[in-house]
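Input.
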Amino acid sequence: MEKLDVKAMIESVISDLFDNQPLSTIFLKVQAISFFLENEQFTKWFKNENNGYANDETVPDYRNTGATVYANVATYGGMWQNIHIPIEQIKDNFVREWLSHVKLNDSIPEIEALLENTSNEGAFKRHVPAVAFSEIQKVLSPGYTIQDAWQEIQRSAMMNILYLVKNRLLQFFLELDREFNNEINFDVMLNKKEVEKIVNQTINANIINMGNGTVSANDSTNIGGQNNTLVINNEQKAEIEKVVAQIKEVAETFEDEKEEVLNELARIITQLDKPTPKTSIIANALHTINGILMGVAGNMATPVVVEGIKHVLSLIGG
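Output.
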């Protein structure tokens, strides 16, 4: 009975992901599957996503997002509020980098609740600790005193995390389902090595900064970082161009998402025209598109395109 339940739950999760069900609901099933799989790396990743990351050192790279800094400033003439701080002028490299990025360690249920309970416009705030005020103060004119400062994170950054987590889960369970040839009675315990391989190719793909006990981008089959380049042969380029054409055709049927998808496709095409394309840019664009496609329900072409994207990512290590 246990084997049947695992198989049924895996297929149920795949169906829920295609139907764009909330991750907080899907995670109840994923938790049960994790128990039966007994894979330490998958369990650790899932617990972090479900409960939140305990510290910045364990937050994966896909949760690191840009931020804009604002402050309330006291002057001799009164109080100025919501002043944009030009953090690029901060000379201390560590403080400048720390202020310009936020490692979002919130749990997936928390992120979904934030998005559900706020409007489609605006940004989320994270208050800056007072210890950083002295560095911010240096870029202001004399007589200005920081009273409060915060980082603003765009709503789209939160949504992108949900997209990427859904993408990893979908790829993982599709590969798992295919590995066992759609058999209802596959034996998890007899296939631990295969499960481990799939975890490394999907869940751990391109994850960095995960701390002890997890793989880095250099340990996996994918290439991480923002500046990676890879010689793309004619066959790989043809596969990418094929997927680009498929995505464009599907995007034409969209309304709100069309422009965003076409912008990401433009990034891919720009890289393909270069002698040494940055595969990280192509991969990031494909991941973003994949997340958007998963968020659009009711399009029969989406599963085919998602499979095509996954195939291209496997070719370029993205």
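The chain has three domains: 2-56+163-201, 64-159, 234-316.
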